């Protein structure tokens, strides 16, 4: 039995894009990076947050009446939440009849999460699937993640982590014995540019990737392809050379930029900084794929 607790914002069942087979993906809340293209802004802060969907709000004002900190206001543009004043008590969510206000994030124990995951164990076994822990950044909550992976592993489940690689190296090393597969993001090879794009240098990230490879844990490198940000031939070639320098047996997935998460920023009263950026063309993706393949790497475009 494990009473270790973590904060998650979703458990997605029947996932087919987060590792082999049919999987359940546990999304951890909290991430030290602030990638400009992040499609899950609700994953960044490590505590539960209130979101507001204006499209279903009936402007009744009940949330304003129950807010002790006076963090909610209403004008002609709709409901506004002062994030600095919000105490996260949830009273507004409780009285919101159309469910325009919702909590994102909840604290759960390892046992509670495992009890949800184990319900689909037959699907995992029949499809060659398992459990993936993603984020946010799972290294932000290493004790919980390691305990959950071990619990799943002990039950015979294939385990996978989907990580940015930005986290404590010692914590990652303790996690790896309970990990069957690592999905590892590489966003840019230039440490200065990486800091501009995400808020942090990539030095720790690359150090952790080397650790994973040295421990013999299977890894898939995932590269988000962001037009005008990291998709130049020079930038892609730098990533390809770095991966090939570690091992030419490492598969590479190209993840084309998409705008599916834009609406979430408004729900959290945040600004989406990439504006009208559009997804990469098929020609650009194929060109990037050929660069990786020219260095002897297996590369796939994951749509």
Strand order of the largest sheet: 7-1-2-8-9-10-11-12-13
Quaternary structure classification: single chain
Largest sheet: 9 strands, mixed
Element string (H = helix, E = strand): EEEHEEHEEHHEHEHEHHEHEHHE
CATH evolutionary superfamily of the largest domain: Aldolase class I
Please identify, by name, the CATH architecture of the largest domain: Alpha-Beta Barrel
In total, how many beta strands? Answer: 13
Shape: globular
Report how far apart the termini are. Answer: 39 Å
Average residue pLDDT: 96
**Rg on CA atoms, Å:** 20 Å
Name the structural class: alpha/beta
Number of helices: 11
CATH level 3 topology of the largest domain? TIM Barrel
So what's the CATH class of the largest domain? Alpha Beta
Strand content: 15-25%
The percent of residues in helical segments reads: 25-40%
Could you list the spans in which at least 5 consecutive residues all have pLDDT below 50? none
């Amino acid at each position: 039995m494990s009473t270790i607790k973590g904060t998650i914002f979703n458990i997605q069942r029947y996932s087919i894009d987060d590792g082999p087979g049919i999987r359940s993906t546990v999304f951890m809340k909290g991430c030290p990076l602030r990638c400009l293209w992040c499609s899950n802004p609700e994953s960044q802060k490590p505590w539960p947050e209130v979101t507001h969907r204006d499209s279903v709000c009936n402007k009744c004002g009940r949330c304003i009446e129950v807010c002790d900190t006076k963090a909610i206001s209403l004008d002609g543009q709709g409901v506004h939440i002062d994030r600095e004043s919000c105490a996260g008590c949830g009273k507004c969510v409780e009285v919101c009849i159309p469910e325009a206000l919702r909590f994102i994030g909840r604290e759960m124990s390892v046992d509670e999460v495992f009890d949800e995951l184990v319900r689909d164990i037959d699907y995992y076994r029949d499809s060659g699937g398992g459990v993936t822990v993603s984020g946010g950044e799972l290294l932000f909550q290493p004790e919980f993640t390691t305990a959950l992976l071990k619990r799943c592993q002990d039950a015979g489940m294939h385990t996978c982590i989907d990580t940015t690689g930005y986290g404590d190296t010692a914590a990652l090393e303790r996690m790896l014995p309970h990990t069957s597969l690592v999905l590892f993001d590489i966003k840019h090879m230039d440490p200065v540019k990486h800091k501009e794009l995400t808020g942090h240098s990539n030095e720790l990230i690359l150090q952790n990737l080397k650790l994973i490879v040295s421990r013999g844990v299977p890894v898939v490198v995932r590269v988000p392809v962001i037009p005008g940000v990291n998709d130049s031939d020079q930038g892609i070639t730098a990533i390809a050379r770095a991966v090939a320098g570690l091992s030419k047996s490492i598969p590479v997935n190209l993840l084309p930029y998409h705008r599916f998460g834009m609406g979430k920023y408004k729900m959290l009263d945040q600004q989406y900084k990439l504006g009208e950026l559009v997804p990469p063309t098929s020609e650009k993706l194929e060109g990037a794929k050929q660069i990786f393949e020219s260095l002897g790497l297996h590369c796939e475009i994951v749509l």
